Each structure stands twice: as structure tokens, then as C-alpha cells.
Amino acid sequence: MYRVLMVEDSRFFGTVIKKRIQSELQAEVRWVQTLSETYELLNSMANDFFIALLDLNLPDAPNGEIVDLVIGKGIPVIIFTAEYSEEVRKYIWSKKNVADYVIKEGAPTIGYIVSLIRRIHRNRFIKVLVAEDSEPFRKMVCNLLRVHQYSVFEAADGSEALKIMAEHSDIRMVVSDFGMPYTDGIQLTKKIRKKHSREQVAIIGVSAQESMSVRFIKSGANDFIRKPFSSEEFYCRITQNIEMLEHIQKIKDLSNKDYLTALYNRRYFFEVGHKLFANAKRHNMNITVAMADIDFFKQINDNYGHDAGDEVLKRISLILKNRFRESDIVSRFGGEEFCILAMNSDPAQSFGLFETVRKTVESSETRVGDKSVRHTVSIGICTELTDCLTTMIRRADLMLYKAKQQGRNCVVSDR
Questions:
Q1: Which domain holds residue 368?
Q2: CATH code at 73?
Q3: Are 168 and 152 in contact (CB under 8 A)?
Q4: In angstroms, rounded to a whole number, what is the distance separating the alpha carbons of residues 118 and 123?
Q5: What is the pLDDT of residues 3-37, one digit of tens each?
Q6: N or C: which end of the chain has fewer CB within 10 A?
């Protein structure tokens, strides 16, 4: 749980915001109403706050003094204001560490605040690369990104940017200037696109030349910002592109993953599994295919209800997901049955691996309300690289059948 500092003198507005944040974000809100209260609080826990929500005009700080106090502690801030003008907007964005501002306009304002905090909190796990040869401009862009809590990497030219991309394959966004030595922004964009699609890595081109927008977009960029730009426009563009990537990933997950357990579904298993099998066959690599089934699952549903059955499925799925590598495929095949394809697995060690899984499931329990549900699994494994993936699945299924015949809660291998 993370902490949010809120400084707001309106009891109604503060109460509504605090309730929404704590219920929807599971964050702790420390609410004070004056500059003096804020000063006392920050003296004891300045390092404890993830972000601050500040009313621009307080009874004892009518001219925005609260902003300087909180920013001075290094806390990113979201500013509330009841009055909006170009003068107010310029004043707000003249301050460092401002993440955004919100005009008090009722229900939509509350929803925006909650979604903004959620967005910034999620940004901690998103890596962004800034490629820019001008150090002052690069530092400015990086500082803006860090206020929104992104994990930021810096490159002074396109060649350095490509090296960083090679070292950090999970970078999700690149902000690239056009005019750089060695490899310019257009060349960088084209080279990135050879390995990463628009749906995998968002590229935002930056240039003072408006005509460069077309060249960037045609070369594979997702968006373009013309210099000079405001902090507000920059944040809007960054957030829009990151959320587009997330929406695309969500659609892919809905297509590839089981809705209940978040494991890969049967369709994805066969789509990717056949390719992995062909690669293993071509390079004479060892793979293991396992079928696992929850023992007496119908009794769990009958005795505890289907909601309990769902919780058991999720619990065992989590055990399976945590036990195997990203290079393996762990899928829910249907009902209470799972299929696992483990790559580069030593046949001699496969039995021990799945025996560990079985013991972990046996020793765990699922809490459903005030009840504790115990569970076990039976597992059949095939370690022989046969003619096709389907044959290995059938053999693993046969071993699973033998495990059931032997009394359940055991592992049977074809070796």
C-alpha cells in the first residue's frame, strides 16, 4: 500500500476524493487542510508519500505557497484549482515536479484524479528511452518523465540508443530527436522497427521542423511532437501512447489467455506449441509435455460451491505460473485440466520438477471465506521427443490416466 498526501480545505471535496482513492486504489490518504498542518506532517514523514494532491488556494496559503513547500520535499504533485485562466495554467507549469492540474468541476474531476494516480503508479514498471544529443533538452525531457514515475534511460545519439535497446528488451517507449550524430532519429526509428512493431514499442519523434512529422510517421513512429512543446502537451502524448500499447496488449491477452486463471488458453498453446516443438525437433532439444488434473474437483464444487472451485483453480494456476519459466507454456486446457510445455528440460530431472509441483499443491490451501480448502493434483508427463506435439500430449494424457488409477496425487512419467 502506498501513501497519498492530500491538502484540501473543502470537507466535502476532500471526503469524496479520499473515499474514492482508498476504495479504488487501495492507497492510504493522509488528509490535512492547511499549510501549517502540512508543514508539521512533512517534517515527520516527507519520504513516505508517493504523490501529493494540493489545493492551490488555502486559507493560510492563498497564493500557492503550499506547492513550493511540497515540491521542495521532492514529492510529485497534482494541483487542484477552482479557477482556471491562462495565467493560472502558466503559474502551475512553471513549477517543477508538477504531474498535472485538475479544475474542480464535480464528479468528472474525481474520476480523473483517481485514474491519474493509478496511471502514475503503474508507470513505475514502464521503461522509456530518451535519445537526444542536446544534454539540457534531454535532461528536461527525462525529468518530466521521472515526475510521472517512468523508469528512464538516456542516450546522446541513435547508436547509443540501439545499444540500450539491446540491453533492455522490455523498453516500451522511445522519445527520439531527429538531429543526432552517427544515427539520426529517422534511422533509429527504422532500425527499431526491424525488431519491434508499433504494438510493442511506441516511438515518438521530436523535432523543431514541422515537416519532420511525416518522415517520422512513415518511418514507423507512433507519434510526433514539435519543439518547443509544453509540459502539458508532452504528458498528454506520452500517456496516450502508453495507454494505446496497454489496450493492444489487453486485447491480445483476451485472445490468448484464460479469463479466470490468466494462464494461456488451449488455442494459444497449440499455436505457439507447434512452433516450439518444430524448433526443438530441428535443433534436437529436449522438451517435456505434462498434463495435470485437479483431484476430486467436482467434490470441491459440490461441497464448497463453484466460487470456491474458481478460487482453487486460480490458486493452483498461480503455483504453476510461478514454478515455470517465461520460455515455457503453462495453459489451462479446460475445466480443471492443465497442460505444460517445458523447453530445454532434462528428461532425467523432469520427474523431480513435477513432483515438486505436486508437493507444493498438496501442502497449500485455498481460503474461501472462513473455510480452508485442501487440494491435490495428478500429473502425467511425456519426455520423449516424438513425431509431433499432439502425440506427446496424448502420451502425457495416458500417463495422467495411470496416475489417477494409482490413487491420484502422484506423478507418472513415460520414462
A1: 266-413
A2: 3.40.50.2300
A3: no
A4: 9
A5: 999 999 999 999 999 999 999 998 999 999 999 99
A6: N
